[in-house]
Amino acid sequence: MEQLKQAIRTEGSVLSANVLKVDAFLNHRIDPVLMAAIGREFAERFREAGITKILTIETSGIAPALMAALELGVAVVFARKQKSLTMRDDLYVQKVYSFTKQVENEVTVSRKFLEKGDRVLIIDDFLAHGEAAFGLAKIVEEAGGAVAGIGIVIEKSFQNGAAKLQEAGYRVESLARIASLENNQVQFVEETIHA
Amino acid sequence: MEQLKQAIRTEGSVLSANVLKVDAFLNHRIDPVLMAAIGREFAERFREAGITKILTIETSGIAPALMAALELGVAVVFARKQKSLTMRDDLYVQKVYSFTKQVENEVTVSRKFLEKGDRVLIIDDFLAHGEAAFGLAKIVEEAGGAVAGIGIVIEKSFQNGAAKLQEAGYRVESLARIASLENNQVQFVEETIHA
Prior knowledge:
- The structure is a homodimer.
- Chain A is of the alpha/beta class.
- The first copy, chain A, has helices at residues 2-11, 32-46, 62-72, 131-142, 161-167, 189-194, and strands at 13-14, 20-21, 29-30, 53-57, 75-82, 91-98, 103-110, 119-127, 146-156, 172-180, 187-188.
- In chain A, strands 6-7-5-4-8-9-10-11 form an 8-stranded mixed β-sheet, sandwiched between helices. Chain A has a two-stranded antiparallel sheet with strand order 1-2.
- In chain A, helix 2 packs across helix 3 (62-72).
- The longest helix of chain A is centred in the first third of the chain and has 15 residues, at 32-46.
- Chain A binds chain B through residues 23-24, 28-33, 35-36, 58-59, 62-63, 66-67, 69-70, 74-78, 80, 109-110, 113, and chain B through 23-24, 28-33, 35-36, 58-59, 62-63, 66-67, 69-70, 74-78, 80, 109-110, 113.
- Chains A, B: It catalyses: XMP + diphosphate = xanthine + 5-phospho-alpha-D-ribose 1-diphosphate.
- Chains A, B: Pathway: Purine metabolism; XMP biosynthesis via salvage pathway; XMP from xanthine: step 1/1.
- Chains A, B: One of its GO terms (biological process) is XMP salvage.
């Protein structure tokens, strides 16, 4: 998605070979016009997938998920991240390890908001090792729904999340795919291919 | 705002005389059509206020703030809630006490996303004691901006936040104002007046 790649080029900053900071338009400041375009792009890619619900995870997945939901005419549910819980009878719970923050969170979704037969589009801001996406997919399946696809704003293709998700049979659509952040440079996958 | 009040009536649940649960359309599951209507309503009320930026706070403020930002043609910044911080040179920090959760959080905004001269609309999902709104307002003012208004989705008018904010000179626009949650009943302010 060219508009997104342009935003990454001009407003993103490479903090290390693993970390791209996009707090200028996605993770802290949000550009609503770009989010609307991202929502339309997700909707276009998954229009024929029979989506009944979008599942995302707080915090930075909410904006792109909401715009996609508006386009697709479905509701969004955002999973919560918590350290640990006492009351959990009414929740689906999955442990998700964050490599970036080196901490394990419990990701929870209220049982009443996922239904048997739901065809769920999982949306998240970043895909790195795939931990969050796998956790959300397990929750969908535990609820008796199907994962109709996984929509990612920025895929770090040099990490193995996308490959692992595809091996597991999931359809992954990433709007920007980053091949490398070496030497403080953002290299997109497409650029490498066409070079 | 009738559409919002209808959603509160049909999908909200009163947990106690102080707590209204709206996780069916705002705090966990999000209804994007209702959020778009909420965004339009905020935009209409603040159209002439010269808003240059919207400031909200994670997590549940993001959806209504994003839809209002799209309507007003400005960016959103969402403040982060954290327990405590070590690195903070580049952040505005305010302590905010949550009466509901009985915990003090630090609310932070990156210095680079607020500017001198900004006219900021603060948006949040709930207004109770006004702690979060006052914290965000202090951050705006510390940055040299002005608080052009405070837009609230659901005001618990039986608590004193709205009154305190108005006393302090802020314009508060709440889309639903709740007079009471006694006896497991949602009573709106308008209904009380017209009764």
